[in-house]
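Lab meeting tomorrow. Look over both lines:
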Amino acid sequence: MVTGVTVSPNVAVLKDWDSLGVAISPLDVTNPVAPLMSSNGVFVPSNVSAEADFAAAKTSVWWDIENCKVPKGCDANRIAQNIRSVLLKSNYSGSLIIHAYGDTTRIPSSVQKALSSTGVSLNHVPAGVKDGSDKKILVDMML
């Protein structure tokens, strides 16, 4: 199931526990987004296409990697590439920045290396703070 929560006029937070939890900006959240999973595990929103004004806009992904882990058997080296592919299929061609938040001591080093090598920014948020990653994401979004 995918749910959309408006954070600001051009940002929606999407969560799909079978693939990734991401925030994609800009995204037209006036229409529901129906999830599709392709055979290679790429999350593909249906009926989402960039409006001309936003096609070249910068896109930021804000990922709570602690609550939405890299799925077992998923090649972490392909996650950033898959996100870029989905955006390109939706006619978003602007720059892409991916931020992942969570307790990095709980993320296997092989996954950390794979994500870092593909441009994903890993942000350590110590365990034990209720909703710590969510709060850090919101603070960073506002900066």
Notes: Residues 38 and 59 are 22 Å apart (CA to CA). The helical segments are 79-89, 109-117, 132-142. Residues 1-42 have pLDDT under 50 and may be disordered.
